[in-house]
Specification:
The complex is a heterotrimer of chains A (about 230), B (about 190) and C (about 190). Chain B has three helices and seven strands, in the order αβββββαββα. Chain B has about 190 residues and is of the alpha+beta class. The chains are: A mainly alpha (about 230), B alpha+beta (about 190), C mainly alpha (about 190).
Chain lengths: ~230, ~190, ~190
Amino acid sequence: MAKHTPLSKEFLKGLWEQNPIFKQVLGMCPTLAVTVSAINGIAMALATTFVLVMASMLISIIRKLIPNQVRIAAYIVIIATFVTIVDLVMKARFPVLSKALGPFIPLIVVNCIILGRQEAFASKNTVFRSILDALGMGSGFFIALITLGGIREIIGSRTFLSYQVLPNAFEPWLIMILPAGAFLTLGLMLGFINMYTDRKKNLEKESLIDQYRNKTKSESAGTVAAQEGI
Amino acid sequence: MNTVVKMILTLSSIGVISGGLLSRVNNWASPLIAANLKAQTEEAIFNVQPAAKTYELVKASGVEVYKVFGDDKIPLGYSLVYSGNGFQGKIRLMVGLSPDLEKITALEILEQIETPGLGTKVTEDHFRNQFKKLETSPMIILVKGVEPSKPNEIQAITGATISSKSVVAIVDDGISIMRELKKEGKI
Amino acid sequence: MELFIIFISAAIVNNFVLAYFLGICPFIGVSNKTSSAVSMGMATTFVMVITAIVSWLLYNLLLVPYKLEFLQIPSFILVIASLVQFVEMVIKKVSQPLYRALGIFLPLITTNCAILGLALFISMREYTFIQSIVFGVGAGAGFTLALTIMAGIREELELSDVPVSFRGAPITLIVAGILALAFMGFAGMI
C-alpha cells in the first residue's frame, strides 16, 4: 500500500495533513519550552530534524538486521548517539544558543516524534522514502515552532528574530514569554486550527449535499417533465 | 538460542559503533567547549574590571575569585564569582572589587532564571550600572521608590523588588566573605 | 535548609510540568480521571527516586572518573529503560495489587521526558547524593500534584460546554496555562 504513495506526498504530508505538532500533538515538551523566541524555535527544529533524518536513514538501512525484540533499544541508542553529536557540536560551535536551549537538546532523545517515526515509518520503508518522510515531519515541526516562537516573541518582547517589529508604544505582554503563555498560545492555536479544518470539512459536506440535491432535483424535474409529456 | 545471540550481537555492535563515533566527536569538541568556557569567564572578568590586563585564580580561597592586574603587574583588585537564591532559583554573578574591597568596579550577572521581563531586568545596564563606583561599607543598602541618596545605596527595580534584593544580598555576602579572607591573609 | 529549598523548588516553584514542560505527554493523556492521575503520579515518583539514585551513582562513580561524560545521554536513557522494566518485574513479583494499580502506567514512563530531564538536571547542577534523592522526591511530588489538579479540573470540564473545536488537547493546554499562571504565585517562596 505505502509503496504506491507518490514520493512528493511522502514529504508533504508532514507539513500540514499530519503535522506532528498541530495534527498529531506529539513532542510537546520541546515545543512549549524553547519557543520563547523564534530563533530558539528554529535552532530546536533544525537540531530535531537533523536527528530525525539521520536516525530514519540509518534505521531504514539496517532495519532488516535488527531483531524485532530489541528494536526499541536499538532505536534509542541510535537516536541518543545522534543527539549527543548535535549537543557536542552546538556546545562547541554555538555556545550561546546551546545555553539558551539548555537541557532541551539532550531531551530530543525522548521526543516522541522521532521514536514514533522510526516505529511507524522507517522500520517498514525504503531509505529514500524514510528520508523524505523525516524531512517532511521535520519541516512540519519547523513550521510549528517558528510560528509559535514568532507569535510569542512578537507579542512578548516586541521583536522578531531580535529585530523590533512593534513600536515602543506597545506594552509587551509578559505572559507570552512565561511558561503560561506557551500553554495558552499553543492551546488557542490548536483550537483555531481545529475550527478551520472543521469548517472546511463542513463546507465540503454542504457542497456535496448541494450537488446531490441539485442532481436529484433535476432528475425529479426530468421525470415530472416526462410524466407531463405523457 | 540463535535469536538471543543475534540480539546480543546487534545491540553490542551498535553500542560499540556509537561509542567509538561519540568518542571521536568528543575529542574534536571538548577542546572547543573548554575554550568557549574560558572565553566566557575571561570576558566577564575583564568586563567587571575594565582596566585589567591580566588575571590569575586565587587558589587558597575556597571561593572562585580572580586577582586582576593592570600594566606592569600592578594589582587592581578582584573579580569575585558568587551565587545565591533569587526569586525563582539560583543567581550567579561576578563582581569586580577594588584592592581594599571598599569599592565595586562593575557587576555582571552570569546565570539567572528570574521571571522574564521583570526579574531579568537585573541583567540590564540600567540596574547594573548603579553598582559602578558603589561603596561597600558598611554594606550595600537597597532603597525602594526613591532615588539613592548615599554612596552605598541601590534603587530596587519596580516590580522586581525580590530579584533586586537577592542580587544585593549575594553581593553583600560575597564581600563579607572576601573581608574574612583578607583578614586571614588568604587573598 | 538547603534540602528543603531543593524540595520546594522542584515540587512547586519550578514544577516539572508547569514551569519546565517536562512530562507533558502523560499530562495531556492521563489526566482524565483523578484516580488514574494519582496512580500515574505515584508510579512516576517511584521511578524518579530510583532514577535519581542510579543516575547519580552512574554519573559520579563511572562517567566522571573515566572521563566519559559525553556518553551521558545514551547511558541515562538505557538505564531508565532497563530500570522501568526491572521495577515492573519486581512489583509484579512482590505485590499483585500494586502491580494492577501501577502496571499499565509503567511502560509509558520510559518515554516520559520528566525522568530523563531529572537525570540530566542532577548531573548538570552537580547535586550531592542526598540532594539528588530529595530532588527526585520533590519532582515526583510536583508531577503528581500537577497531574491530580489537572485531572480534577478536567473532570469538571466534562460537564461544561466547551466549543467543539477546542475539546481535547486545546482546552487542556489552555487550562494548563491558567494553572501555570497560578503556580507563578509561589515564586517568591525560595
